[in-house]
Design goal:
about 5% helix; about 450 residues; Immunoglobulin-like; mainly beta; 3 domains
């Protein structure tokens, strides 16, 4: 056999072996070369939008052989790529017509009126990928007439844009704790809660970002006793606070002693108070849900109260559970400086509890202290349960001292104002059946024997 014929036979044999090997590969299930998906058409409208709004995407996508997987949308602004959304196309089909609303995120350092490109990335269920870039869009920054600093302890503070920098929102002349947790909200409900139908900034992976109701709170810390101003930079997504020292005179929970009264947790403070003096309040004592005794304190704002009683020594009682602050004088109260109210189904006004106690003068929960507002005229603001409440029996009487002395019964008085009280000769004073439970103010003229009743809203 000549050399030329031998070479031909060898090459033919090698080709047959390679073909056999290829057939064997297919027989044993090695994947074929992946097909490439196709974005036939795509459109996003409108062409101009505000970050934080939604736009509409429509697209026709397909793959020659393999089922589709996802269509990812990103935007590119100022050489920065921002993921927008990933649309799930995993229906087992090789084609899809997409029509969906997509939310355009607001992140840090996004310029105003900037050119925007969208990048669409289509994948099939294997490794095939197709991309398309859409151009000609304009992204605008959102600007607000007001945002809200919503502190987790219940405080809500309006943030207003600074002149000359609409991205900086500030609140000043406030008193915030040295450290606090918070969110920033575009909208607040009537009861001062965050409205998540608007934009909300919170903790997003350790940084400030837009969050929903499940998002975390942000942490603020002022290198001082308190924070007196707060600024949110909506361009850089940064927050800062200005600190200051505590002002005096003040009520500080650190100065209070913890105790238990009738099974409830109280904090008490013996203190000399001055008539018409304003006192700064901090931390827990500055909570908006805390109700200061409405007869002896005027709540000027969240961080300041004015004492209305007579100058003297008192004990403050802060009920952390029911969130009210009451007081008693250091000496046993008695007429003509005070009139005392005790009974059942009445108590201190509270925003979160139906506070009530039973007859007696043993502690601050047993009776209510009136404030003398003129000669023989006294004022007391109380929460009254509605008759038939599960608490049971409801009624009360006024006394001149804690020794049960100088009591007056229902028939001793003439009643004006709201007609909510009733009784019989020699009996206690009862709320009428059917009256709404709530906060009522009684103005008692002890010498003229009159009681005027008015409804009161909590501050």
């Amino acid at each position: 056999m000549n050399m030329k014929k031998t070479a031909t036979i060898f090459l033919t044999s090698m080709a047959a072996l390679l073909l056999a090997a290829s057939c064997d590969d297919n027989r044993y299930g090695d994947p074929p070369q992946p097909s490439v998906p196709v974005i036939t058409s795509a459109e996003i409208t409108p062409a101009s939008f505000t970050y934080g709004d939604s736009v509409t995407i429509t697209a026709a996508v397909s793959d020659p052989e393999i089922a589709l997987s996802t269509l990812a949308v990103s935007l590119v602004v100022d050489n920065k790529t921002v993921p927008v959304t990933v649309l799930d196309l995993r229906t087992g089909e090789t084609s899809a017509n997409v029509s969906a609303k997509i939310f355009i995120p607001l992140v840090d350092n996004m310029p105003d009126n900037a050119p925007i490109n969208f990048v669409l990335t289509l994948t099939n269920t294997r490794t095939g990928v197709a991309t398309r870039e859409l151009t000609g869009f304009t992204g605008k920054r959102p600007y607000f007439t007001q945002l809200y600093l919503a502190v987790d302890n219940g405080g809500v503070y309006p943030l207003t844009p600074q002149a000359g920098n609409r991205d900086n929102y500030t609140v000043t002349d406030v008193v915030l704790s040295r450290s606090f947790t918070y969110r920033i909200a575009q909208k607040i409900t009537a009861d001062r809660q965050i409205d998540y139908s608007g934009l909300v900034w919170g903790d997003r992976n350790g940084k400030i970002g837009l969050v929903d109701a499940s998002g975390g709170s942000l942490f603020a810390f002022a290198n001082s006793d308190i924070a007196t101003s707060f600024t949110f930079d909506n361009y850089r997504f940064e927050a800062s606070q200005t600190g200051a020292a505590y002002a005096t005179p003040n009520f500080m929970l650190d100065d209070f002693a913890e105790t238990t009264i009738d099974g409830e947790e109280f904090y008490t403070l013996d203190i000399a108070l001055t008539k018409n003096q304003e006192y700064h309040v901090y931390n827990d004592l500055a909570s908006q849900i805390l109700v200061y005794n409405m007869d002896f304190f005027d709540r000027i704002n969240l961080n300041k109260v004015k004492f209305l009683g007579e100058t003297g020594n008192y004990t403050l009682y802060y009920n952390k559970t029911s969130q009210y602050l009451a007081l008693l004088p250091a000496v046993s109260p008695a007429y003509p400086d005070y009139i005392l109210i005790t009974g059942g189904g009445i108590g201190y006004p509270s925003k979160i509890a139906k506070e009530h106690a039973w007859w007696g003068f043993g502690n601050v929960r047993n009776y209510l202290l009136t404030r003398k507002i003129s000669t023989d005229v006294y004022q007391v603001t109380m929460f009254i349960l509605s008759p038939g409440d599960q608490y049971g029996w409801i009624g009360f009487k006024p006394y001149e001292n804690t020794g049960w002395g100088g009591e007056k019964t229902y028939d001793a008085f003439t009643y004006t104002g709201l007609s909510i009280l009733e009784g019989t000769p020699g009996s206690n004073i009862f709320p009428k059946v059917g009256i709404p439970e709530g906060v009522y103010r009684l103005t008692i003229n002890w010498s003229a024997n009159t009681i005027h009743v008015a409804s009161v809203d909590l501050p």
